[in-house]
């Protein structure tokens, strides 16, 4: 019975993935390049919101560090895939092995994700032993530190001028595949014993400890997983917009991602997906209005108002931490 249910779940999951791939193919064939790029960015926002749900929603960690990890992953992926002919004068301080070599996108993304995960582990060693909102302050400081290093380490990053001319190696299929992977990993984790341990830690750390859960370890794992996916998303985004600067991923992005998680419902993967789609669409729809009325920042005001309204009328978010019945059956 269990094997039959597992096989049925896999078939249903493959069918959902096939439908999504068909919709992406249709969009790429019929829509303008601008809209296709916007859809690719929406998929990346979905992956980012889902990965932050693992850190903030499952384990209850108030992390603001996604932009810092995205910056790390973005710069590493950009440097590793940058054409050697341009590295000599654009990035003169690179080690010789990096100056003369250009590696494919996938290993470059993995390298950025692994380095960001290691950094998250090192940051988490002292911070995750503390209580309260120390993690939020530490990760906010991490954004400032990473941006400062990227600005001043000009021989490796071109400083405040940023790195342009990056090969456009990312397309909508990369972004769709990465979003699907992030959703799959998050859902598998949520309905596993490890995911239940994370959520038990979020609800009551002392009770979880008394039940035999190592709350420090599960928090660390959630923090590292979120950092890895954020860094890979940063690398994909850099190769989509073909430029990266120290301010590309800022505190504003951290606020938007937190808003997606809270509006969708803390701990709900499906809610994070819905919120990412909605807020990405709202931000893009507000852009022409900002330019015509010279009201720059209007989209951020709209996002903030949406967050306030959701917190007032539905404090637990759209999904309230739950998943649709279909997803619960599949996973």
TrEMBL record:
A GO molecular-function descriptor: branched-chain amino acid transmembrane transporter activity
Primary location recorded for the protein, binned into one broad class: membrane
Pfam families: BPD_transp_2 (PF02653)
UniProt GO cellular component terms: plasma membrane
Location within or outside the cell: Cell membrane
Keyword Transmembrane helix: yes
Key words of the record: Cell membrane, Membrane, Transmembrane, Transmembrane helix
Transmembrane segments: 36-55, 67-85, 105-127, 134-151, 171-189, 220-241, 253-281, 293-313
Database matches in InterPro entries: ABC_transp_permease, LivM-like
Membrane topology: Multi-pass membrane protein
Annotated protein name in UniProt: Branched-chain amino acid ABC transporter permease
Source organism of this protein record: Tianweitania sediminis
Phylogenetic placement of the source organism: Bacteria, Pseudomonadati, Pseudomonadota, Alphaproteobacteria, Hyphomicrobiales
């Amino acid at each position: 019975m269990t094997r039959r249910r597992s096989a049925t779940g896999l078939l249903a999951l493959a069918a959902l993935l096939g439908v999504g791939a068909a919709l992406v193919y249709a969009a790429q064939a019929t829509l303008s390049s601008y809209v296709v790029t916007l859809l690719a960015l929406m998929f990346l926002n979905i992956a980012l919101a889902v990965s932050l749900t693992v850190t903030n929603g499952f384990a209850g960690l108030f992390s603001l560090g996604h932009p810092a990890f995205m910056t790390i992953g973005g710069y590493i992926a950009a440097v590793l895939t940058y054409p050697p002919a341009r590295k000599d004068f654009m990035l003169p301080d690179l080690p010789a092995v990096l100056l003369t070599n250009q590696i494919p996108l996938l290993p470059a993304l993995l390298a950025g994700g692994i380095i960001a995960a290691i950094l998250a582990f090192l940051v988490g060693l002292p911070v995750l032993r503390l209580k309260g909102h120390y993690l939020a302050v530490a990760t906010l400081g991490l954004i400032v530190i990473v941006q400062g290093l990227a600005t001043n380490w000009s021989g490796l990053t071109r400083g405040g001028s940023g790195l342009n001319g990056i090969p456009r190696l990312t397309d909508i299929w990369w972004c769709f595949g990465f979003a699907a992977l992030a959703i799959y990993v998050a859902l598998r984790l949520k309905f596993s014993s490890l995911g239940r341990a994370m959520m038990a830690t979020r609800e009551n750390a002392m009770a979880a400890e008394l039940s035999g859960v190592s709350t420090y370890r599960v928090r660390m794992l959630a923090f590292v997983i979120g950092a890895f996916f954020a860094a890979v998303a940063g690398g994909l985004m850099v190769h989509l917009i073909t430029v990266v600067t120290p301010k590309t991923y800022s505190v504003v992005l951290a606020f938007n991602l937190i808003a997606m998680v809270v509006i969708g419902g803390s701990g709900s993967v499906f809610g994070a997906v819905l919120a990412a789609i909605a807020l990405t669409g709202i931000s893009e729809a507000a852009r022409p209005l900002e330019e015509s009325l010279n009201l720059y920042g209007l989209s951020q005001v709209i996002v903030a108002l949406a967050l306030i309204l959701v917190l007032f009328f539905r404090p637990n978010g759209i999904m309230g931490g739950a998943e649709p019945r279909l997803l619960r059956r599949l996973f």
